[in-house]
Amino acid sequence: MRQGGSGGDGVSPGNVPVCYYGAGGRVSASLERRVRAAEVLLRCAACALAVLAAALLGADRQSRTFFSIQKVARYTDMQSLVILVIASGMVACYSLLQGARCLVSIVRGGILLSRPLAWAIFSCDQVMAYEIIGAVAVAMEAALLGKTGEVEFQWMKTCELYQRFCTQAGGGVACAVAASASMVGIALVSAFNLFRLYGHGKGSSK
């Protein structure tokens, strides 16, 4: 997009929506389309995987009877799984909203980004990516302890008692891992969308 006042291609002052693509812009139209398609795909994947992870963990339960006493294993028995369910829900809702924004921009035939908006999207994507990655790391550590136990602390291998529960929980954690990978990809795309708005001054005139 060509900015007036100084001649040639300029940089948005930060409060003007800009779209950098085409012969005189920052990226080609074909690259712009690929970036937008990748962003929509990643956001839809993150949303679907996060919903699946939350559903698998939320519905996970198994009952066992020990000496006429019935014990039910639920995801709420492990704080790490509760955190992962909450984080997955937040990522799913956020990805759904951002995916809708991307689809609207595609339907309207252009992607308009000002620097403040690009910074806001970039920051939110970073926060969500770190959030789901942290929740997955904690859940995987708890899952490992449930699988192998800890002799020094006399923690038994609970997965030997609740095999079906652990299997379904493992599937939920695996979906969350895939969702976190999608969020990392989204964070990279939003970083590209942000930093291409900079550095179009002196270097491009040489």
Automatic annotation (TrEMBL):
Domain Casparian strip membrane protein: 33-181
Ranges annotated as spanning the membrane: 40-59, 80-97, 103-122, 129-149, 169-195
Record keyword Isomerase present: no
UniProt keyword annotations, A-Z: Cell membrane, Membrane, Transmembrane, Transmembrane helix
InterPro entries, A to Z: CASP/CASPL (IPR006459), CASP_dom (IPR006702)
Keyword Heme tagged: no
Domain of life: Eukaryota
Bilayer topology: Multi-pass membrane protein
Location of the protein in the cell: Cell membrane
GO cellular component terms listed in the entry, alphabetical order: plasma membrane
Family: Belongs to the Casparian strip membrane proteins (CASP) family.
Subunit structure: Homodimer and heterodimers.
Protein name, UniProt field: CASP-like protein
Organism whose genome encodes this protein: Hordeum vulgare subsp. vulgare
